Amino acid sequence: MENIDKRNLEEKIFKIIMIVSILIVIISLIIIIGIVIVNGASSLNLEMFTQTAEGGLYLGKSGGILNAIIGSIILALPATLFAFLIGIGIALYLQRDFTHPHISSFIRLSLDILWGIPSILYGIFCVIIMMYLGIGESVLFGIIALTLLELPLITRGMDEAMKVVPVGLKEGAYSLGSTKFETAVKVVRRQAMPGILAGVLLGLGRGIGDTASILFTSGFTDDIPTSIFDSTAALPSSIYFLYNSPIESVRQKAYAAAFILLIIVLLISIVSRALSKKSVKYVIK
Amino acid sequence: MDKRKLRDLICTKLMLIITISASILFFLILFTLIFKSGKILENYSITDLLFSSTWNPGRNEFGLFAIIIGTILVTILSLIIAIPISLFSAVYISEYSQKNIRRVIRPFLDVLAGVPSVVYGLCAFLFLVPIVRDFIAPAFGVQSTGLCLFTASIALAVMVFPIIISLCVESFTAIPLELKEASLSLGATKWETVKKVIFRASAPSIISAVLLGFGRAFGETIAVSMVCGGKPDIPSSLFEPVQTLPSLMASSYGELMSIPTRESALMFVALILFIVVFIFNLIGFFILKRTKRKWKT
Hints:
The complex is a heterodimer.
Chain A lengths: L3 H40 L2 H5 L15 H28 L7 H16 L2 H15 L5 H25 L3 H9 L4 H12 L1 H17 L2 H4 L19 H8 L5 H32 L6
Chain B lengths: L2 H34 L1 H6 L2 H6 L3 E2 L4 E2 L2 H32 L2 H16 L2 H23 L9 H26 L2 H9 L4 H12 L1 H17 L2 H6 L17 H12 L3 H37 L1
Antiparallel strand pairs in B: 1-2
Helix pairs in contact in B: 1-13, 4-7, 4-10, 5-7, 6-7, 7-10, 8-9, 10-13, 12-13
């Protein structure tokens, strides 16, 4: 047995290393938030929220980022809705009531892998389809790209929540004569509600912040789109296109967009926590 | 057939169709990319594309070697930074911290995981780049613009933290308490228990966390393209600009779209990216699934 002093010293040293590591992680987040707030707060004014950008992509001095805010909303919300609608079908179907565990575990694996595919590949995939169909950069394909991107995340989130629904509850529903689908929709879905909400919000957060997938699919423009075949700007893409502009007031737009985006991400995190706490009340344990 | 049964049948079949189409999405992407990169493979051999290092689409030279090396360097360097920090953080969160500290740290990690990559890129550009340019590079006696391998790796490392930490915490807490208690009751210190019991028992999960982190870092596009400098040469020092595969796609897509061979070259890049990330994720998730089963029984 080694000397006990030496072992205690080792313990202390490693504890310090651990605390330093966790501090590095936390401080890096604080730095990120700090930079975004310091740069964003000074560039925020009413104009940013009420005016669209003017004067072209890279050099337009005046105006705000209203077009990007609206663009982000009309891209991310429908995408999340579609991903949710498709995803809940898949998630319900993956449960033991419908599918053999061998098959569902294969599908789960393929969803997990899709989750890890870099978002730019979804963008490229959509561009290939767009070229084939002869459609240019448009809101429509921005939404499709984001739907594909969010789908695996939302589906797996809901699936994990549904997996832990007690078998007894389902059996109760079956014994009262309900069909598989009725059980799935009325019992499993209700019981898994907190997890479903968390999954959807997680998907929304990923969709609203993703740049690479909408870079080539929805394009970038100063105007608010009037149809689904128009191109549109969005918050993340305006950060990407404007952050290194030589003109200070253009860079301000990127900082303001980052500020809004960060606030949205923080809000999503807070809301999903609050929601899951609230809806846990109705879950039968 | 009564109405409820009919509805059950229709909805079940609909769900089946949706599920099947979602699972073929993966193959759809793969085959489109293979099909689209066919043109470049007709004109150039794979070894030429992969092992020649001049990327100059203007002169029809599509050597990816330097860019592949750049991608691997950025990824490995970021993991070298991220792995120890994430691992020690995870040990602290799961074994050392009190419950109320854990309650504070958890939301922090969630937010860190949720920050969009473009915001990481912006922060690295505004904060890291000047520091590297003005302080770190001169301290090593090198001139640098700050847009370099080193900056990109640090930015990536921060992005990988939440993935590795949350996967490791999950696997550490899944280890049966009896194993830890047995070690502690024999007089081992806490760190010795961590080192000899926890690390050993969760070694596969740690490996899978690292593989998934690798997949994430390898495919990260936007943040890297904002700070890597985008020069398609093999960097000779930490403070030289690099180019990575995903960043190459993001930055040169618009200009290369018009000419079929060049477009096809980019599709080939996308294919490489897809295959590499696929392999790492597949192994990562496979190990993860097996270890989960192990502790359940």
